[in-house]
Amino acid sequence: QVQLTESGGGLVQPGGSLTLSCVVSGTAPARYAMGWHRQAPGKEREWVATIIHSGTANYADSVKGRFTISRDNSKKTMYLQMNSLKPDDTGVYYCYGAGGWGQGTQVSVSS
C-alpha cells in the first residue's frame, strides 16, 4: 500500500513563495507519474501540474510560469515551487502518484 505525505504549506503574502513537498512511502511501482491538485474554498478540485518519471512536466494555464514541479526519484519525493503567489492560489493542495493521494496541505495567500 502506498502513502503520500505533503508538507510545506502555510500563510504567505501576495507575491511571496512557498515550496511544497510530497513523499511516497510503501510499495510503489518502479515508474509512475505524480502531480498536484488544489481545492479552493467553495470550489471544485482542480489540476495544477503533473510530472512523469523522466521529469517531463505539464502545468495548468493558471500557474504556468509561476510554479515549478520537480521530483527526486531516489528519494521518492516530489516538489512544487510556487512563486509570485496570488490570493487565487489559496486552497488545499493535494499530491497524487503511484496510485495514492495525500491528505492535503493548506496554502493561504493573504496580506
Task: Explain the layout of strands and helices.
Blueprint: E1 2-7, E2 10-12, E3 18-26, E4 34-39, E5 46-51, E6 57-59, E7 67-72, E8 77-82, E9 91-97, E10 100-101, E11 105-109
Parallel strand pairs: 2-11
Antiparallel strand pairs: 1-3, 3-8, 4-5, 4-9, 5-6, 7-8, 9-10, 9-11
What is the helix tally?
0
Strand count: 11
> Which stretches of 5+ consecutive residues score pLDDT under 50?
none
Question: How do the helices and strands follow one another from N- to C-terminus?
Answer: EEEEEEEEEEE
As a whole number of angstroms, the C-alpha radius of gyration is 13 Å
Categorize the overall geometry: globular
Mean pLDDT: 96
Share of residues in helices: under 10%
Strand content: over 45%
Report how far the terminal alpha carbons are from each other: 40 Å
Could you characterize the architecture of this molecule?
The structure is a single chain. This protein has no helices and eleven strands. It is mainly beta and 111 residues long. The strands form two sheets. Strands 2, 4, 5, 6, 9, 10 and 11 form a seven-stranded mixed sheet that branches. The chain is globular, with a radius of gyration of 13 Å.
